[in-house]
Amino acid sequence: MGKFRTFRPEYESIEGMTQNSRFVDERFLNKVTSADFQRLATELQTRLDDDAIANALKRFPEPVFAQEGEYIGQALEARRAKLPWAANEFYRILARHVTVVGTDQDERFVVRRLTDSTTAVTVYTLGGKSDRDSVFYQRVFRTNETKEITLHGLEGKDIFELSGEVRRGPRINIYGGPNSDKVTDSTRVQGLSKKTRYYDTHSDNELTKSKETWDRTDHGVKMHAYDREGT
Question: Where are the domains of the chain?
Answer without folding.
Answer: 14-94, 102-223
